[in-house]
Batch of 2 targets.
Target 1
Amino acid sequence: MADAATIAARPQRRRFRLPPTLLVGLSLTGAVLALAALAPLIAPYPYDEISVLARLKPPSAAHWLGTDDFGRDVLSRTLMGARLSLFMGFGATAICLGVGVPLGLLAGYLRGRTDEFIMRAMDVLMSFPPILLGLLILAVTPPSLWKAMAAVGIVYVPAIVRLARSATLEIAQEEFILAARARGDGTAYILFAEILPNAWPPLAVEAGLRVTFAILLGAALSFLGIGAQPPSSDWGLMISDARPFLEPAPWIALAPGIAMSITVIGINLLGDGLRQILDPELRTGRTG
Amino acid sequence: MAFLSVESLTVEYATPAGPIGALRDVSFSVGKGEALALVGESGSGKSTVALAVLGLLGPEARIVAGRVVFDGRDLLALPQPSLRALRGSRLGIVFQDPFASLNPALPIGAQVAEPLIYHRGVRPADALAKAKAALAEVGLPRPDELLKAYPHQLSGGMQQRVLIAQSLICDPELLILDEPTTALDVTVEAKILDLLDALRRSRGLTMLFITHNLGVVNRICDRACVLYAGSVLEEGPKAATLAAPLHPYTQGLLGSIVSLEAESRARLTPIPGRLPDLRQLPGGCIFHPRCAHVLEACRTEPQLMRPVEGRSVRCWRAGFLPHQAPAPDTAAADGAPKGAPLVAVRDLHKAYPLASRLVIGGPTLLRLQRREVRAVNGVSLTIRAGEVLGLVGESGSGKSTLGQCIARLSDASSGEISFLDRDVTAARGGALRAFRRDVQIIFQNPMSSLNPRRRVGATIGRSLALLGRGRGERAGMIGKLLEAVGLPADYARRYPHQLSGGERQRVSIARALASEPKFIVCDEPISALDVSVQATVLNLLADLRDRLKLAYLFISHDLSAVAHIADRIAVMYAGALLEEGPTAQVLAPPFHPYTEALLSAVPSIDRAHRGDRIRLRGDAGETGEAMKGCPFHRRCPRKIGAICEESAPPLVRPAPAHWIRCHLPVEELRRPTTARLVPAAG
């Protein structure tokens, strides 16, 4: 079987096609990002305009997605809420990748004491339930969006560290790492230029998942009242506020819920598609 | 009357990029009691033949045409249940990798007895008794205890013996062996081949022996069938096929083989080019793009098998071809040491710590016992400028660790390494950077030695960038380096997966050359390559040495390859050097007993093997404990007695530049070993 797999071939470049998951992921995520960016321009009403006369109205021509208990337009609030939610998702993911990836690479490459120290610290972090850790960070100081983002980022650091470390452990055994040391490359170069590009595929998928988790956890924190503060519009906060009216006016919670689902699916597909095109073997076709 | 005959077998594999023709019109037959060798390089389809005969092809394989007739029945037409009844009972199989072929979770006894219980309905207790007898028959000691042992407690050679016992337990008539010795050390391989030879005679087994090693073919088979890119190119009696091959490909394979015989240690004549793309086979003769004797008709007319001189060959010019004469030896070396020492290693030790454990005893009742593996145990050697020192040893002998210590990729526990008279044992910073420029390393595995995410040009260019070369300057230099190792300059734009194994190894060499080193550690640079590719890489390394005045430490388990390129040879065993001297002197008596055993274990295509083989008992020793006496005493066929266990052997010097570490006097070492050992476990 190995025989058939190692067939030598004439070098040829097959026409490279983008994987469909990437295209769908890209268009969904792109649409959400565009709507979020253009929200102030396209929202039919100001997101915080209260109208006592139009309380809890079902979807209609005037209010496409209905109104909430203060008579605020749900469509406008969902559009504006995208900004905070996405900001939370991407910001927190950036924080956890920025902290987690270097730590994971270092632990996996250096092994020994460094590894023990980093991983035991991660174990401590992981032993807290995520919400509790977020609460701990936020409870002692007045809540703000920035702090919520940092808290969510830190909560997810251990997952990234573990993943980066396990990928690094394997790659560090390869002979091209020895070859890099033999030609005199330093640790930083080996970590970020030799190992990271090879560790990237699982990290890209994980990062996609983390964005969605961060949006959800951010929403949960807002729901608990320690994330985004009223009257600002955030999907989590909207769902939280809509809780008493789920029966008479389900649209208030449904709109941000559906928006969140579309975002999550789009970002996950994007991460999956990225993994595929990051692999030069899939990109250029196998000929060796 | 053919016992097994494969007739016009054509097999395709479905792949996303279209079907691959793995086998095309393959026909051969094996008579009862005969041993047929199926010879081919990787990609030739030889394993596919074995799987097709056994009915074990995967779902992506499609049998397009052909028949496999075993004892009068077409196996391809049989339903799976009937095939299952044949497999393991009348058809035995031994696969290449003993480490992967045994279930690690089951005891040996259950695994060997399994086929009896399944096929013959024998009661488990009786089956175990039979299993014990089978284990004894394949030469394993203490079969009672083995029945209860687990695979990880056995060495590779013992595992392969267990697999042979398992495949023989139902008394099969046909045994299919798929590279059964490729994963084993040469001394172990020799013993397994002896065993298979003996079993064949005592049981009248029919064998289909799949291998890439022509030496093994010579050792054990009656006839040889040469497979190339899914087609049989030549088939005939072993002796005639190996002595005077008719097909240009077989001639090329033989020309690629490195041999221990001095007169054939000339320059190798490898086959140019590489295996064709099985998706788009060349028209006409499939070998024509690589053939030296190609004529216009070869490009257009497909070749048919035709009889020539009692053999069959797929080449219309067969019988009229001139035999290729080996090119004159360009690298004649007298082996006498000359020049100033470039690398000097003094009393180098390297120990790896193992997990410590608590043991009961000592003044505090519990004691933390620190354990370590002594991979390198007091090695001293010198390499001069422009010289190649070959380092031979079996797996676990510590030869790669020694190489990495010398290249400063791993820090020695004690001892001294000096380069150009400067101590570099603990060099740091700038001194280490300067050392790295002068000393490079080439690795064994062409799959893992290049970063799969980087283009070839970037890999080589990094070495140049570290030397401070500018971007524009680099592009030209990368092209020159690629051309120096025989690759087109535009390969710089390729990724490693777009290259073949041999090409990847060339890129590794180009990377090592980028810093213009004076000394390169070659750590098994050809072991992972096909025979014909091995030859081209060896030739390249020899050319580069001559042209650039490079010195190599050439590490290999393959004594023939080392003998081919090295000026001097050092023989390593259990972390220590046992013998060192100029190549010609190491390969001729007087020998260290271990060197003698290694030499006699190498399967060769030149020597007719008769009963003058030396076999070592047991496996390569544990390198764990500190050894008082000779590291080799446990397996030595010429052990004198207690002195070998108690005191370290002295250096015997049969010639000024040649030493042997042994208690025996030099006159004794000059005589060949008389006591032939009956192999114990192996």
Target 2
Amino acid sequence: MQVDTLELSEKFNLYGCIQCGKCAGGCPVSMKTALDVRFLIYEALVGVLPDPAHMEELWDCTCCFTCVERCPKDVKPAELIIGLRSLLVESGTIPKTVTDALQGIFRQGNPLGFAREQRADWANGLDIKAAQEGCELLYFVGCTPAYDLRLQPVAKSLAKTFQKAGLDFGTLGIEETCCGNEVRRVGEQGLFEMLVEDGKPLIESTGAKRMVTTSPHCMNTFKKEYGLSGIEVIHYTQLVAQLLEEKKIQFSNKVERKVTYHDPCFLGKQNHIFDEPRAILQAIPGVKFVEMDRIRERSVCCEGGGGRMWVEGTNIQERLAFQRVQEAVETGAEVLAVACPFCLLTLEDAVKVKGLEDKLRVMDIMELVNLAL
Amino acid sequence: MESQPRIGVYICHCGFNIAGTVDVDQVTEYASQLPGVAVARHYTYMCSEPGQNLIKQDCEEQQLKQVVVASCSPRMHEPTFRKAAQAGGVNPGRVEMANIREQCSWVHKESHDATEKAKALVASAVAKATYLEALEEREVDVTPGVVIIGGGISGLVAALDVADAGYPVYIVEKSDHLGGRVADLNRTFPELEPVSDWLPSVVERVQSHPNIAVFLNARVEKVDGYVGNFRVQVSGRPVPFSVGAMIVATGYNVFDPKRKPEFGYGRYPQVMTTLEMERKLAEGDLTVNGKTPKDIVFVKCVGSRDVQVGNPYCSRVCCMVSAKQARLLKEQLPDSRVTVFYVDVRTFGKRGEEFYDEARNAGVLYRRGSVAEIYRKGDRVVARVEDTFLRRTLEHEADLVVLAVGMEAREDVTDIAELLKLPRSADGFFLEAHPKLRPVDTAMDGVFLAGCCQGPKDIPDAIAQAKAAASSSLIPLIRGKVPVESATAVSDPELCAACGMCVDVCPFGAPSIDPVWNVSVVNAVLCKGCGTCAAICPSKAIRLQHFTPEQILAQVDALVW
């Protein structure tokens, strides 16, 4: 495959790079995979980039954007990786698992292989109105919370919380389609643009002032890449923290647990939402909140993002999620709280693989909130 | 209009700046046809020596009475052309500028339109020139003395130079002691001389100098006047000081590494700043957590060269500070491993590179790669960093991590910037008048900069700048006189009704009502020539010289017709 490195250098502003190595130094997978994004930039700059078709390590990037956060020169290293992935997508040289996920989104609006008609099944009996009829708040559920049995309770808990607070909210029902955050990040720019083209007018037509998402991944792309007008995009932790502060909801049950919290990359590093999730946890009666060492801006990626749900890359070593649950156990916490569907799944897998089930439970913040309300 | 005008018109190409857009031949031809014009010429650079000579020669040989220069903004070169005309015997008041660069060639793309506009601007200037009058050059006495804001090393050195020249100096220092941030340092690079060997004697000389008054815990509250005669109100003083010049030496802020949370500063006792390391070196206690560190890491460029924290500039000292501390630590703890992680090594000053050589030869290890993150591993911390030569990311274990923190503009100098009307550059530091030719001057005549308030620098550079500021401030003091605006307002007692509106509107307190004659009188020394009084005077008794109604109307007529 021929790559125009000059074009890459200009498109991704690689000329600003001083090769300091903060990107690779901060990259969560750089110590255990072949990926060296700093060197990748250099190869592109001086025009010796190898054929991306043979660079399996491109699939190692989790799109946690730590490199973007650390870069002192405002180069966006992860965007170069996404750009190179899109060349692979264009030429059709992508892993089968990724193709399957993308085809699922194209056909049924989700990467999980479920039918569109089942998308709203999680809400059966909850009496949630269709946002298309108009509402103040649009709740964007997301693919995993809508279909995955492990995540459905999180969506239910959110809906019930909104009802308790008396909010005028609705969902897009079976018309809701994948946000495309990971679609863009695996390099399928064309499909992503299509999703925006369809999704943007649908969302805007609801007339909602605010849109709240279950997943930080959905929030991220809606906020930064959709160009939505007249609607503010927030994560559920922001809204729930606000409802608590305004006393629109109040906790009545004690949850006697020692809890720690894992910052999701798309919520923390990429959108600087650090305090709200902690405020919710600390407001739950009975919860004893403890912190791990690597938190907030220094949080560790669980490796669930950037399409890594669907592909492995050169990463043969232990997943970071394994180290992360170990760190959580060391704090003495019984619950590792998260605020992201991907984090929940990867960390829970890690607990199982490591045999830590009797020591640590991975729970979404909304599951704890549900217990306390 | 006295006798017949004889106007010389000079059209500047400014290289391609003007001539690239404006057809200068056409404008010159057009100008030569205008009434009163005796000669019209164009030239590549009117402000150059030959360009100025052209004007001077014509003034003499063609007996010109007025000069019109069509070039850049008068803010740029009006003084230049006034001088050239004066050298040829034409009063500087009889020089008029047409701005065909900033207001014409630079803002118009289309050559035809730009040329037509240039013609109109030249015609307008020529029309005004017909009515120009000679202006009287005026000077006022300078009040000897300098106020220096800031009692750090720059302020102290500047104070001593001015005081040694025989002029009174007032140092206004915000804190309760002199010496500033230099007092926090242990030894200075590259000679490794203890600061305590020389700083106390500088402070002592300042304190005992008969020409220097020091005000501690003090702030400048108000500044009036202009070069030669500033009135500076200092907190806690009953009356303002009158001085001829001022030196701003307000220093810098140390970057707070908490703004780079990835380094865990304030979280891990093993992580400290270079300034905290200075203190440890001075106290001779090199233990961390009660233990002698076996592995020491230096992190460079913390808060510098970093657009994420809004500091794109190099701190200019961190490389040398790191080399100094790394070397001292290696010498005192020979069994420890001392590693400096770097992106670039900038040891540019005198003896700088040699000092870097000495640090490496002493056993300090330099590894290329910028530390990305620091976190805990057992009872130690690790620096996560890519060694860019090895192409390998590693967790470098350490017992001590030193963050080489940079310098920032102080945020508490906003009030001084406002009081003195000093512009600042995008990075927040005070802006010098010209980066090369006027490095210690400011946009305000008579106000000079010294030290790190103008940008990060090491001690030798700060002192060099302080001495430059001191000698620049001595120029008006030694001359004893400064020129003042000659295009001032004058009041006609025959027309004045003593309504006092001019007194009310003047921001400089120049007009007053004469108690004996009961008419407005304008103090030419205070007048800055802004024209507010002339505009408001209901009986048109006040005229602003160089901007008289006839002149302005002629200008407007030329544009309208």
